[in-house]
Amino acid sequence: MMMRRRTTLLSGCTALVLALGATACGGGEPVAAGGGDQALSGQTVSVAGVWSGSEQKNFQKVLDAFTEKTGAETRFVPTGDNVSTVVGSKIEGGDAPDVVMVPQVGVLQQFAKKGWLRPLSKTTEKSVDSGFASVWKKYGSVDGTFYGLYFKAAHKSTVWYSPEALDQAGVEAPETYDDMLKAGRVVSDSGLAAFAVAGQDGWTLTDWFENVYLSQAGPDKYDALAAHDIAWTDASVVKALTTLGKLFKDEQLLAGGQKGALNTDFPGSVEKVFGPQAEAAMVYEGDFVAGVAKDQFGRAIGEDADFFPFPAVGGGEAPVVSGGDAAVVLKDGKHPEAAMKLLEYLATPEAAAVWAKAGGFLSPNKDLDPASYGDDVTRATAESLVAAGDSVRFDMSDQAPAAFGGTKGVGEWKILQDFLRDPSDPEATAARLEAAAAKAYED
To answer: Mind giving me the DSSP string for 410-426?
Structure first.
């Protein structure tokens, strides 16, 4: 694994950068977050986002650290999953939040094109230029203007497994997709299903497809398909569906078979591997699997729950698919100055370290000291994400219009569920995907 530059969070230049009103190293404009001089006392920054439970609790720790430094109070506004509708309603009602944590590239682009967003400050932009791979700025920009700071990232190219189950079957972590299926058949011969697939949640199936497609077709094709510059009937899509179908049609590999997979949601898929009554050895999904395995089922991460990178497909490179939440500043918010200062703070490794210590978090900021993470597995996942640099590709379905890539029961989610149910005709599935995509991109 390629190691990245390590920094000490509060020493030297970084300490100066984090001090409120201090001049950034090498000159330039003042840095606005930090120092504790309470310069923003009397202002309250409202921050809207989808987070709930432990995620909201841990993000509040970051907001509290910002309050301690600047004096600005914060108020978190839960949006539920439909961020676009909730934020639009609040803007129309004259109660726009100051900051929104946007979970989808497509929604960020929608907000920008509606004229809802303020460009981020030069201070934030400088922090991102120096501390983040350029791909993160690309995904946060619309028509060349930088609107979205990716504060929290997800690594969606991780396959989680029970070390005990793989040890008992005598198999090791595979390096290719075909080897992963072979290992799965050996596991199933030992009496335990290979994979728990969360087919009830269509978004997990889009993630399966995206990893296969990125590795097999390559990043250029991935970018073209994400932008709908090539059709979903392209031969590369049919090939990826055929490859994915090798797993979906193999009853020996799926816990409960296709019917069982279609009746399993994401938490249920993790339970089937790490719960008290194990039914499978492996579950594919992002780094957030670890949080469920630890918090709900008491698994020790790195001991009785571990991961291997999603393996390379068809001679391609191993994929690194990511997701994330971008902080944006709304034009109609009541405290734009304090909102901008919050984003300047979120762009620092200091802010990322607060949540990294609490757990359930990855930062794309390469200046965050890996020691900030609380366990070796999370640290390795974060380093893998950062080491991928500009080869990271954002979740394709999150880049698409929500009607195609992000709505339950329709579009890509529904079509891939149907493909899981019957993977016998990849070409017909590709045609259905193209029809749904063409309609969504036109609307």
So the answer is: SHHHHHHHHHHH-TT-H
Distance CA 248, CA 347 (A): 41
Compute the CA torsion angle 373, 376, 382, 387 (nearest 10 deg). 130
DSSP letter string over 200-261?
TSHHHHHHHHHHHHHHHH-HHHHHHHHTTSS-TTSHHHHHHHHHHHHHHT-TTTBTTHHHHH
Pairwise CA distance, residues 439 & 80, whole Å: 26
Residue 1 maps to a domain: no
Alpha carbon distance 211, 225 (integer Å): 13
For residue 16, the domain's CATH number is 3.40.190.10
Q: Is the dihedral of CA 106, 109, 114, 120 positive or negative?
A: positive
Indicate whether 106 and 67 sit together in one domain: yes
Say if residue 34's pLDDT is above 70: no
Strands 321-330 and 393-394: parallel
Name the packing angle between helices 53-70 and 349-358 (round to 10°).
Answer: 140
pLDDT at residue 12 greater than cutoff 60: no
pLDDT, tens digit, 9 for 90 and up, residues 284-321: 999 999 989 998 999 999 999 999 999 999 999 999 99
Percentage, residues of the chain above pLDDT 70 = 92
pLDDT, tens only, 99-112: 999 998 989 999 99
Question: Are residue 304 and residue 436 in the same domain, yes or no?
Answer: yes
**pLDDT tens-digit profile of 82-100?**
898 999 999 999 999 999 9
Q: Give domain status of residue 4, yes or no.
A: no
Q: Three-state DSSP class for 158? A: strand
